[in-house]
Design a protein that fits this description.
The protein has nine helices and seven strands. By secondary structure, the protein is of the alpha/beta class. It has a seven-stranded parallel β-sheet with strand order 3-2-1-4-5-6-7, with helices on both faces. It is globular, with a radius of gyration of 17 Å. The N and C termini lie far apart (48 Å). 44% of the residues are buried.
């Protein structure tokens, strides 16, 4: 039996969506170092390599190619887990997409896809995994919002709307599932990932944005991962329904 199929060996299990790269990968790496066993979900096959690297560090990890907007795929993945992997105590809803388009030219298909992945996906994963967390007696969910939820996003109204929805979803589930499941979100600012580069921004321009941020630089994926790890961990046991801003002071809540 390989390590992916083996028991998590007494570690609590966390599911991280969108874990193949960027912030999701950094979250998986940080949680693994903190003692979690990891289930990584992503539509990108590169997530398999992330799981393999974690296993090389003796961190139990498995990867499943899951589209979080597909409820049947979510349930099928969960049903495939050996018993030990069903002891879920944490979920990080990180999967998200940000296609750029003017509102007047945005197709309904693009709008619907962004909402399906970014917002409905977080709901579907939370609803599917909450019974497993409740069976453990306690646990936590962390959702990824965005500063665009507060400031808006030129060429990204669907993205901004989906992330504003994450704030409402976070607070609502925090009320509904307390006291057993704490539900919080983190609000990253501009971060050194592929996402801003997909808009055609070069490295020099991206890093130059740090000059306008009070702490003097753009974010790194591990900055966000640290906040997620805190909210999942015991030091946040009296925190629920909150939004933690991780943006160097660029936007203050």
């Amino acid at each position: 039996m390989n390590r992916e199929e083996a028991s998590p060996e007494g570690r609590p299990v966390a599911v991280v969506t969108g874990a193949a790269k960027g912030i999701g990968r950094a979250i998986a790496e940080r949680l693994g170092s903190d003692g979690w066993a990891l289930v990584l979900w992503d539509v990108l096959g590169e997530g398999a390599a992330v799981a393999a690297r974690l296993r090389e560090q003796d961190i139990p990890a498995r990867f499943e190619q899951v589209d979080v907007s597909d409820e049947e795929a979510i349930l099928a993945a969960i049903s495939s887990w050996p018993v030990g992997w069903r002891k879920v105590r944490g979920l990080v809803n990180n999967a998200g997409i940000f296609p750029r388009s003017e509102a007047l030219s945005m197709s309904s298909a693009v709008w619907n896809r962004v909402l399906a992945v970014n917002l409905t996906g977080a709901f579907l994963c939370s609803r599917a995994l909450a019974p497993l967390i409740l069976a453990q007696g306690q646990g936590a969910i962390v959702n990824l919002a965005s500063g665009r939820a507060y400031a808006g996003a030129k060429l990204g109204c669907a993205y901004a709307a989906s992330k504003a929805g994450i704030l409402g979803l976070t607070r609502s589930l925090a009320l509904e599932w307390a006291p057993a499941i704490r539900v919080n979100c983190v609000v990253p600012g501009v971060t050194d990932t592929d996402q801003p580069r997909e808009a055609g921004i070069d490295d020099a321009t991206l890093y130059a944005r740090g000059a306008s941020i009070p702490l003097g630089r753009i974010g790194r994926p591990d900055d966000v991962a640290k906040g997620v790890a805190f909210l999942l961990g015991p030091d946040a046991e009296y925190i629920t329904g909150q939004a933690l801003f991780i943006n160097g002071g660029a936007l203050m809540g």
